[in-house]
Amino acid sequence: MNPAVLLTRRIPSAALSRLEAQCDVDLYSNESVIPRSELLRRVAGKRALICLLTDRVDDEVLAVGSDLQIVANVAVGFNNIDVAACRRHGVIATNTPDVLTNACADFTWTLILGITRRLGEAERQLRRGEWKGWALDHMLGMELAGKQLGLVGVGRIGRAVAEKASAFGMHVVYSDLAPLDLPGAERISLDRLLATSDVVSLHVPLTPETTHLIDQKALTKMKRSAYLINTSRGPIVDEAALAWALQHRLIAGAALDVYEKEPEVHADLLALENVMLIPHIASATTETRTAMADLAVSNVLAVLGGEPPLTPL
């Protein structure tokens, strides 16, 4: 018999076909997040679980899924996976790094350009029928050349963002636990980064230490002309504090792709013009999402075949 695999969301057909050729796939085919009760019911007897960042995998899931050999997360972040619990249960956990780096880095620059040039605000004005025609001082934004980009954390995606900065004439600074081989970039403290950067971009994983890393105190340290970008994880930013800072013009603007309580967005942010709100699509290209699913499937097939996974946690 082929090994049984639970797949919590539909994945691109090429990756799904590879999986189905060697495994008995139990696919949760609804478009919504699999309910917790359904996850617990269907994981029993499975040897592999392919999940997404919306699925919490913890001791409870692992206890019910006592036959699991691998949990393959179709994401680079893995705050939804209790990796320590996986180790206690003898289950391998994997993620999908590298294959989404360029897409997420490009998207970070999309947000930087979009918010500093007020694209969302301008489009909304036009769609409301409020544009009165060209004017010399209409929707003035900020040029990037000669400005400072501050990276809070520099993993694969942060590094790729930094490498593109020279194309826009920006100087890069970063805060990280240790110096990095990042040509042209300067390592400084987080406080100094916040106080001196024109654009602050977040690239840290979600941990207890980084939860609400950007809170009211941090926001008050930023320049009034500065912009905040978050493509990492929503809870890194205190959304209530961010709304307060934007309302009082303590910073010029923000662009978010992730949120504290997805898919909910803080109501005060929804009412503001000086923030771009994007529905978690940084890695959403056909090529990248296909590569992510394919890597997760490769990890599963390797482990079920007695081989080590490609990208273990």
Account of the protein in words:
With 313 residues, the protein is an alpha/beta fold. The chain contains twelve helices and twelve strands. It has helices at residues 13-22, 36-43, 59-64, 83-88, 101-116, 119-127, 156-164, 190-196, 216-221, 239-247, 267-270, 286-304, and strands at residues 4-7, 24-27, 48-51, 70-73, 92-94, 148-152, 171-175, 185-187, 199-202, 227-230, 253-256, 275-277.
What is the global morphology? elongated
Q: Can you give the helix content as a percent range?
A: 25-40%
Weakly predicted, low-confidence segments: none
Radius of gyration: 21 Å
- Please state the structural category: alpha/beta
Strand order of the largest sheet: 8-7-6-9-10-11-12
Global mean pLDDT: 97
Q: Secondary-structure element sequence?
A: EHEHEHEHEHHEHEEHEHEHEHEH
Termini distance? 29 Å
The total of beta strands comes to 12
Strand content: 15-25%
Please work out how many helical segments DSSP would assign: 12
